[in-house]
Amino acid sequence: MNYNFKYYGQLDISNIGDLILNTELNWDEYTFRQTDRYGQADTKTIPLIWSEDFLENTTWKSYEIFKDSLIEIENNLIQLLGEGKIEVALLINLPKNKKILPHIDSGDEHFFKTKRIHIPITTNDKCNFIVGGETVQMKQGEIWEIDNAYKVHSVNNNGKTDRIHLLIDYQISHKKIKTLL
Fold first, then answer.
1. How confident is the model at residue 176 (pLDDT cuts 50, 70, 90)?
2. Structural domain boundaries of the chain?
3. HSE of 52 in the Cβ direction (CA atoms, 13 Å)?
4. CATH assignment of 5-172, among 3.40.50.2300, 3.40.50.12650, 2.60.120.330, 3.30.450.20
5. Three-state secondary structure call for residue 157
6. Looking at residue 20, what is its pLDDT?
């Protein structure tokens, strides 16, 4: 089935929002995505679970701050999508009046093994996500799956506030069923 966006419902993200507001996070410390990923120059990233090559995702220093919230979100994703686990978790800030330029992500194999989930923590009504020519305005706390494998995608934040998304790559477990012969 071909799609650009799948909407799964609403999630209470007040805990994460409070943590972001009340924790001194250094949004300018980690710059790999901004410097090494085309189109991402205007973004700011807090890696929680991540590796730059998608091969050995590990927890980063800010993970402990958000650990309980991520466990709760993972439990929600298990209910929605089936048994699995969060492989990647990033907080991505797109400041007001900035853009993520049209691009296609690298790491092909990774995108076919995981479901890319976006959960807006803060956003505004002038922020639009575009995948494969389709535009969606995601609201705070909504759970969206995005199929951006081999698809051009971009984001325009023309609003007066920053947009912060929790980006998750969720891998569904494919347990083999034993059969008795």
1. very low
2. 5-172
3. 9
4. 2.60.120.330
5. strand
6. 97
| CA end-to-end span of the chain | 34
CA distance 129 to 147: 12
CA 6 centroid distance within chain: 14
- Residue 81 Cα distances to 7, 42, 45, 144, 148, angstroms: 12, 32, 26, 12, 18
Burial class from Cβ neighbours inside 10 Å (0-12, 13-18, 19+) for residue 41 reads: middle
* Nearest of 33, 17, 19, 90 to residue 60 by alpha carbon: 90
Supply angle C-alpha 79, 83, 86, rounded to 5: 90
**Per-residue pLDDT, 110:** 75
The one-letter amino acid code at 94 reads L
Q: What is the pLDDT of residues 62-96, one digit of tens each?
A: 999 999 999 999 999 999 999 999 999 999 999 99
Amino acid at 90: L
Residue 160 tokens, joined: 């007066």
Which tokens is 159 given? 């609003």
DSSP-assigned states of every residue in 26-58: -TTS--HHHHHSTT-TT-EEEEEEE-TTSSS-E
Phi, psi of 176 (to 5 degrees): -80, 140
